[in-house]
Amino acid sequence: MSEILEIRHLEKSFGDHLVLRDISFSVGQGDVICIIGSSGSGKSTLLRCINFLETPSGGEILYHGQNAATSMKRTRYNSRVGMVFQSFNLFGNMNVLSNCVLGQMRVLGRKRDEAEERALTYLEKVGMSAYRDARPAQLSGGQKQRAAIARALCMEPEVLLFDEPTSALDPEMVGEVLNVMQDLAGAGMTMLIVTHEMSFARDVASRVLFMEGGVIVEDAPPSSLFTSPRQPRTQEFLRRVLARQL
Amino acid sequence: MAANIPTNFFSWVSFLMEKYGDLFLKGTLVTLEVAISGTILGFVIGLLVAILRTIPLPQGRWYTRVPLKILHFLLNVYIEVFRGTPMIVQSMVIYYGSMMVGIIGRGTPVLPAAIFIVSINTGAYMAEIIRGGIISVDQGQKEAATAIGLTHWQSMVHVILPQAVRNIMPSIGNEFVVNIKDSSVLNVISLNELYFTGKSAAGSYGRYFEAFFIIALVYLVLTFTVTRLLRLLERKMEGKKHYTIHGSQSDSASRITVSMDGKGK
Question: Per the CB < 8 Å rule, is B144 touching A85?
Fold first, then answer.
């Protein structure tokens, strides 16, 4: 099996508060996994533990079968597992192109010419190449998020983590970002997406994880999870959420 | 000769200027030299301290955790000691202390020692100012830098500090102005700076008011000029207010300049 990531018995606590307990699942090549659940269920913490923005309190993360925390340099692992944030987090002191070039040059050691060429390719892909000279403060939310996706793609990661990528956007800009993500999924990108966009999860995901209280309650393909959820808690959540969406 | 003795304030000022103009100029240059190099070196010290103090403590690994904690403690001691004692006292302790233990001899020029004292004193203040600047930059950018694989050093140098420094330019300017004025305390280790030259000139004729009136004017001119220059630099650091959109839907070769102040071009 071509498992890129395997999460084993992952735990995370902040002080006495246990946020994640015994999380286990694996991410294979080309998987598009959507993580859904109510606020405070531990979805974002899970994603942040996977790229070590939070240090897990227990369990392990295997990257191609090897312990990611001990067997490789953190910077190298981070360059293989990309992240897109809810609040974009573009570097405010540089324009869009430089945002995309910095990591390529400093982490991957690419020459400026090559880095700029690739940056433009990916900016083109997310429809942002026209805005390569603009600074983050000069862009709309949707544009910022598309630029941030291009920045992550420039590192050519094996997995891309999305932490509620559309939650900070005006409703009219959600679509442009979801379209980009759908294109990526279609192109075979492996993605792990924390989202509240149920229709996106239903249409694009290959698997959906439903989380509550720091555990994965249900892990199933969207076709079965959305139409015939097995766990009562999943049913309850979907009833509440789907009444508003879809 | 008697006819040459000045009789009023203005003639005393011009008399002192004529007689001691060169000395005042030399003093001014020494003051500037100490203030400029002290501020720049202090800034560099502050940057280094701030970078070191923001290294995140790795969880669970005691062999990196303990040395880092010791380092943080020592840096805190440095900051507390140099912010908590007057520079005039620091200069006495450092200058005569290093003479006593033989780091410098009796005949050593006092200028390098003066620059060292001002730098290390400014460094302690700068470290705190820069820490404030780092806090002012949204934490998310540090996370984003980490997430693409940049090291702590790289994300500090390329992403966080450029923004932090821009945000704290007014405070850095303050430090510079303070250094121009407070380098005067170095007269206690006989540095020939502006205040010291004023004292020499005033003493010879007993004309303290006139001499220090001149000195005050020079200080004012120096600080005012520096403030203006820094304001100019600040404006430069804000970056361009416009950007170019490359290509439009109908014409891929078009270039549209968008201006942030609403004046399209």
Answer: yes
